[in-house]
Amino acid sequence: LMTAKKLLFALSFTAVIATILFYVFPQLYSFVYKFYGYFPPGTGSIANGYRAGLSSHYSQNGIFIAIALMISACEYLANSRGAGANKRSKWKSFFFAACCVVAFILNGKRGSIIWSILAIGCVCFFISRDKAATIWKVLLAVGILLVLMQLLSESVPQIETMIERFGIMGNDQSSLHRLAMWSLAITEFCRAPVLGIGFLNYRESYDTHLAPLFATGSIADSRLDAHNIYLQVLCETGVIGFIVFMSFVLLALITTIKLAGYYSERKKELRLVAILSLCIQIYFMLYGLSGNGLYDLTFCFYAFSLAMSASLYIQRRRERKGIGQLK
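User: That's the sequence. What structure does it adopt?
Assistant: Structure tokens below.
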């Protein structure tokens, strides 16, 4: 489990390093541009290539950074309490998390940073003994972060740009596009409320009704998902499919919450795996409100978190039966 976690962190933190590196040395991004043969969405030039990092879309880069941030934050939490807590590892995790925040500011993806921070806050709440104190600590940390960003915005253009993007949220082209997508999903659900219109058929509906209004001309832009997995699952599989989907997601979440509580005072490695699995699952559910987590790269990380929970669940059963620990 720990080896898998290390590989996941190495993969995701590479995106953090690439984002910062391409910002400091923009000329290096020319190699990425030559590899893809085009400027990934969200960049537009070599000077802005850092927003996408090594990914083919700046949204994908935001997902990788979110995973790196959550791993760093969960390691910080795992080293803050319980058996095996290590202050040196704790502050190393804090440094990695700070690097992720810098990369997030450069990336500029609003949804990923909001949902990942909320997911971390939820994990802090679930694993804490004093819930009220934890809420105040999380709010204080977020408040300090917002104040620092506001102070730095006058001298750091990327922070100013991010703050401006939050300011126009709901009125910008991206928000209006999402509202149109959600409206189409609701309309398609009303057309077939019981069984839905068929899995992945929302893309066909988008191609017919919205692509003429929003598509930029590429094939990929003419067959988009709804940017809300709950509405898309509802319209594609109907009420029956939605109930099955939500039952599975909530059952996995509740099981993981119990596992996180069970391992909160036990071996640090198992404690870390439990809270990381919980964090990624919460992120998947939150990101699904504004993204395509069920249909894009996020689902791979979600599946990874389910595998971690399954391993811990088996380990707990083995412990109850007096059998040895899983490696």
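Residues 79 and 87 are 7 Å apart (CA to CA).
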